[in-house]
Amino acid sequence: MLPWAVLAFWVAVIALAGPLAGRLGDVQTNRAVDYLPASADSTQVAKIQGALPGGESTDLVLVYHRDGGLTAADRATAARQTTEVASAHTLSGTPRGVPSEDGTTLMYPVSSTGPGQDDDARTAFVDEVRDVAKGGGGLSVEVGGPGALAADSKEVYASLGGPLLYTTVAVVAVLLILIYRSPLLWLVPLVVAGAADALSMAVVYGLNRGFDVTVTGQSSAVMTILVFGAGTDYALLLVSRYREELTRVARPYDAMAAALRGCGPAVLASSGTVAAGLLCLLAADLTSSRGMGPVAAVGVLCALLAMTTLLPALLVLLGRRLFWPLVPGHGSTPERRRSLFSAMGGSAGRRPVAVLVCGGVLLGALALGVFRMPGGLKQEDSFTTEPDSIVAMGTLAASYPDRSTRPITVVTPTGRAVGTMAKARTTDGVAAVERGRSGGGWTELSVVATDPPESAGEQATVAALRRALDGSHVGGPSAQQLDLEAADARDLRTVVPLVLLSVLLILIALLRSLVAPLLLVAAVVAVWGAALGIGGLVFEPVLGLRGTDPGLPLLSFVFLVALGVDYGIFLMHRVREETLSGAGPTAAALAALRTTGGVIASAGLVLAATFAVLTNMPMVSLVEMGFVIAVGVLLDTFLVRTYLVTSASVALQRNLWWPGRLSREPAARPREPERAGVR
Known about the structure:
679 residues; alpha+beta; 4-stranded antiparallel sheet; 63% helix; disordered C terminus
């Protein structure tokens, strides 16, 4: 009756979670200012702007361009269309055209306070302007500016859900079919992962509504990847142990109970370690990174819950026939063949120090690729396919090389506005200053820099304004990018030690040793460095990516350390089990690799493939994260976990378990029959 009760429980859970899961997209926020800490200068600007008459402005730039030079008819078209926009919407002033020196381009800055604070209203405003601003006959018309970029970003993130889910499901399905070699078995873990995904989306929606947890398109995408990747890994471990128990136990129910007793503790420990590592992101200053922690942890925990309750129930109810054509019969003996991992373990066991040194040198050499990383990711380079707002940025950069086309926003106390304007005009790199709205004791200033947006010169101008304008706040898109980079750098210094410490303490408690946990942590840190180095060698020369997302080092570190330690627990747990059963240090390490290598390799392939799905997404930040984590998981699975950790275990002998009891020669105990807990 228990399996039926569990199944009924999950049916009720999905029925309740489904409507909430469908609303997760409604609470996502993807504007740069929403990622920033509340204390950031540019965040204060956005907050003050929201309190000014009309609320936070939506700033656009209408760009009219003809390669051979604009004609009189083109200018008349531009004037007519901008007048139509002004008559239909509440704008801050009358749009005025700014021609380029070469006569090919005319830009009209447009700022509206009509949409207020509603993201949907802002997007609708951008769409309405685009409906009016049309070209033709050789005249190109693009709508750019921060407002258009925000609308395009929102549209891109909204479009990720379906393709990301379908591609992930397809990739996992193909891999499961190849791993299980069964026409039916692969479908069960996939259905369970889908149920876990729906539950995780509902839970995250509840966290947003109840605790104001920030949800971004990036964190939602990563959560889905984790649910299917980590969930499938847990399914592989459980199904492998269940298949083994079916050869020894007659009833599927009893076989599943034995399987859960055998591999359940390792699965619980590994998933708990992953969740703890991810929750360290709560210490981040950056709002988006702080929200990523609980969102990703919810994905892992929902996957764990589904794979340890719903999956066992379905496997028991469907019985042995689910494994057809390779049905494990009661009393049968699995065919034993010399596996790849036996051969790998043999080579590591014969020359452990040589293997360890060569592997360490290889990882160190790969890590040097970090110095080939492209520079910081600019907004115009943040999409793999250019939307209209990015095309407009390119046109403006080419046509106005000697001035900024994206003003810096300054908010200053109204009583000091005149003095602030005077100081701003005399600041190096400032071309012009214009006064804007006032309200609530604050006045808005629009500062035009002499250098192009996001250039080193404009960044220096932002820094100079912040030094000179004491008591004022400097914001706008370029300032937001600077604040993002600064916050990411601070978070890297804060979160990385916290993750290392928390993971190390958990491993010490689990393995009852100090050396083995230090070995596992050192291994995953080496994997992270090598994966980032490979990214540096590939991003620009091969993938054509012109910048590196500032959050990549931190997020890739957290995921690779947490997920890498996950696999390390499976391997080291088996080494400890073999040692406790009386095996010598070398025999225990090689037996653990032989019995766990196959399923860990399968799990690693699935996890790497699911993260690799992100490399097909239209956002550069997702492409880079997916690539680095996928490469890191593969390095960890096929080099570090198999060769280096095994070689280190053999080389250290019983010192691996220092200062625990196993570091001393144990009393001889009869070996139990081999039970491949995670084979």
